[in-house]
Amino acid sequence: MMKWLQTLTLTLLCSLTFSVHADISRDKDLNIEKIATGFSIPWGMAVLPDNQLLVTQRDARLSRVDMKTGESTEISGLPDDIRVGGQGGLFDIRLSPDYQNSGWIYLSYNKDVDGQGATTLARARINGNQLVDWQDLIVTRSRTGNDVHFGGRIAFDGKGHVFLSLGERGERDNAQNLSNHAGSILRLNLDGTVPEDNPFAAQDNALPEIWSYGHRNVQGLFYNTHTDTLWAQEHGPRGGDEINLIKPGNNYGWPEISYGKEYWAPLPVGEEKKAGMEQPVKIYDPSIAPSGLIQYQGDVFKSWQGKLLSGAMKLQHLNIVTLNDNNEAVEEKRLLRSLNSRIRNVIEAPDGSILVATDAGDIYRITPAK
Asked: Is residue 149 among the annotated active site residues?
């Protein structure tokens, strides 16, 4: 009898271990729970210490969601000069690394400046159901009347710096021009000042906030504080979406190098390689239109630790990329096709579950199926 119980216990433990550690290859391997709905392009998400969820909507609304009930409360106090139109509006939201002490929440948005739009990084605090102490940290030199390619993703390195991505605003030459911010990733101190060790801080004819350049439209940005690596992913023109490992001062090539093609003809945009310009870790052809990016750190999905997870808007799935020890992409999987929806953002919750926002206005919690 005792031996039988020992065998049964071992079998159950092995089964439980397998369910946590096993590789996940189908939507049936996942528990997909809709926790909130009714949003208009939910763009950014951030989990508060009390497990409430902050959600930005591109049409200039900010909500706080009770993830147990799905009830949503609108937060007032956003500025009146958020320019909504095309791809522009209210973008990302992130809690400051020192949120418990400072209460700062960082947001990005398209600011109306004399009838044109400029990607802007701001911070504020929440008092009840209202934003207070609003501060624009940088109104970037990216103004144009074009309503495309704003970037707007935010990341922190845990060392007192904040990163902001910018698209080239639909004007390709911007990405190779260091006298404007468009087509760049910026690095600032948390108060918006410029770090003295930024790569172009002491260079004439270059803006000191720039950390890297040659980007088309970075829609995913993640800093791994365990490995001190900054990851970015951006849209190519037609094919040629990229995942890049970002290094300070480096040129990522757009539009001089690209794996995409012109929209108006099957002709390449630039060359595929050029001296002094970085190669992507991974390209997508055809394009998946990636948005939102994390490198998974938690314990809920053991087999996903260290992998890059991103949303795909055009091809409507959760994209999972495996890296080797040299940070080279060696495998890719595509899940959540069953949602049949453009996945706008992906974040890792404090408990290790995955939160996914779709352009259909839904937010899901993803955990392994039991």
From this structure: yes
Question: Exactly one of 149, 161, 235, 317 is catalytic; which is it?
Answer: 149
- How many CA within 13 A on the CB side of residue 23? 9
CA 312 to CA 336: how far, in whole Å? 10
User: How does pLDDT run across 324-346, given as a tens digit for each residue?
Assistant: 999 999 999 999 999 999 999 99
- Given a cut of 50, is residue 1 above it in pLDDT? no
Measure the CA–CA gap between 310 and 68, rounded to whole angstroms.
Answer: 25
8 vs 33 pLDDT, higher one: 33
Whether residue 110 is predicted with pLDDT greater than 90 in this model: the reply is yes
- Whose tokens are 């398209």? That residue is 110
pTM of the model: 0.94
Q: Which long-range contacts (CB under 8 A, 24 or more apart) does 246-250 make?
A: 246/185, 246/211, 246/212, 247/212, 247/278, 248/187, 248/198, 248/199, 248/211, 248/212, 249/199, 249/200, 249/211, 249/212, 250/212, 250/214, 250/278
DSSP H or E stretch at residue 292: strand 290-295
